[in-house]
Every structure is written in C-alpha cells, then in structure tokens.
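Notes to self after the Tuesday call (sharing in case useful).
The group wants a holo model before anyone commits to mutagenesis around the pocket. I volunteered. Ligand is magnesium ion. Logging inputs and output together so the record is complete.
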Amino acid sequence: MNETEGQRPVLSVRDLSVTFAAKAGAFNAIDGVSFDLARGEILALVGESGSGKSMTSLSIMQLLPEAAQMRGRIEIDGQDVTALGRRQMEDVRGARIGMIFQEPMTSLNPVLTIARQMTEGLLRHQRLSRREATAQALACLEEVGIAEPDRVMAQYPHQLSGGMRQRVMIAAALALRPGILIADEPTTALDVTVQSQVLDLLVDLKLRSGSGILLITHDIGVVAETADRVAVMRHGRILETGTVDAVLGAPQHAYTKTLLASHLTVEKGLMRHRSEREGADA
Ligand SMILES: Nc1ncnc2c1ncn2[C@@H]1O[C@H](COP(=O)(O)OP(=O)(O)OP(=O)(O)O)[C@@H](O)[C@H]1O
Ligand SMILES: [Mg+2]
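Result:
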C-alpha cells in the first residue's frame, strides 16, 4: 500500500486481544478489537461497564496490569508500538499520546507539586526554559477553568478536590498538544458546567492541533455533541462502528438500540450536533 501521511490513521488497532489467566480458565477482557483513529477526529468508544473500554486504552498506552496478556498490533503514526522497549514507550507516552485517566490519582504523583507535574513533560519533550514551561503550564491550567493557577501550582494533589484534580490532569495531557489523546470518562466526576468546558477543550484540541481523540464515555449525549464517529463495545468486542449520525440515527445492532433507548437526552444532543454540523458546513 502506498499511503501518504495525510491518509494514514494516527492510530491503528488491529486484532487486539487482552486475556487474564484465572484458575477457572482464561478470561478474554478484549476479544479481537480493530479500529482506526484519523487525525482531527473524535472517535467515541461507548459500552456498558466491563465491556473493555479502559483495557483498550491501557493497551494503547502499554500500561496493562502485569497479569494481562496482550496480542495484536497497535500502530502509532505507522509504527508498531507493541515492539518498543520500556524507555522508547515512555517517549511515545506524553510526547505523542496524552491520556486522561478515569481515575485522576492514577496519573498524578502524590509527592510532587502540581507545578512539577505540569512542567515535567514540557521540559522533557519540548525545548522550553523553566520560565517558559511555567508560563505555559499556567496558561493550560487557565484553559481548563482553574481560576487561580498560581495557587494551584504550589499545591499537592491531595490538597485539591476531585474535580480540580481531574482538571489538572486534563491540563497536563493537553499541554503537550499530543497527536493522540485518549480520554477515559474525562467528565464523569465533573459538574455539568465544567463538563461542557472540558468537552469544548477536546473539540478545540482536535480543530486547532489536528489531534485524533479517543473519547471513552457511557454518555450518549456526550457522544452526540462531541464525537465524529462512534464504536459500540460489548463483552470485549466492537459490535458496530460508523459516523455518529449513522450509528445514533439508524443503529444496526439490538444492543445499540437498547443503549440509545436508555438515554432520553439523545434526541436533544443529536439535534444540537446536527445543527452545529450544518452550521460548520455552511
Ligand atoms: N486486573 C484485572 N484482572 C482480571 N480482570 C480484569 C482486571 N482488570 C479488568 N478486568 C476485567 O476486564 C474487563 C474489562 O474491564 P474494563 O476496565 O476495560 O471495562 P470498562 O469498559 O472500562 O468498564 P467501566 O465502564 O466500568 O470503566 C472487565 O470484565 C474487568 O472485570
Ligand atoms: Mg473503564
């Protein structure tokens, strides 16, 4: 195949399987998942609890638990990252993939100030002076709606509320303007106003930086308002995938229909999504 830079997906997952060995036999958390993520698109991964959404994102980050066995190919900019060593993978994380974890304390270090954590990646992956990195970190904290970034920079994670920690983590992931952003339920812990601010930030990152974003959510309203395409997961498999309009407008799979029926907000979200699209196309 003669693929050019522009056409090649920024992320390509092929035949991904994740197995946990157990006394009762092997358990397939992920069972043959394949999908592509293009530049400048938001792909939503939806599905019930335990369907394998987080395991999919941890596979891409190569951060699966020790007990998990992974098979399949994961290509980032055409490079198979499953073959990379630990050090090389550390460079890929942060610089090329940012991740917003479902649980903020997973990625924030309890013994380091927010300033240290916000500037660490900028100093490591971009050639910034400490002063420049600090200025950029402050700007990123402001972007995610933190009113007194100076004060927050001097604090430790445990001194912040859950919502604030979530925002700091989002700011840290956005700071490096990664080509790929994985956001695992990024707004679940946030109140509605901040939630829509954060979703706006994701759309902004996609439009301004051309990042590809994998947005994991169980909220169909969020999918309708934010995503371009959607993949529906259940029991470690992708049941159906397509544009948001196609999948939400005419779901093929019985499970997708059930998922949609349980979300009364979908109509409203879809209408907003459509009118925004039409506005953008005009
Ligand atoms: N360390 C582990 N050992 C064994 N099984 C695990 C482990 N971690 C996760 N699993 C199982 O893998 C499956 C997929 O889990 P995963 O966390 O990806 O679900 P999810 O779709 O992210 O769910 P949620 O919406 O609740 O976050 C689940 O059945 C889960 O119980
Ligand atoms: Mg999860």
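Two things stood out.
The longest strand covers residues 27-37.
The pocket of adenosine-5'-triphosphate (ligand 1) is lined by residues 20, 29, 47, 49-55, 65, 67, 102, 218 (CB under 6 Å).
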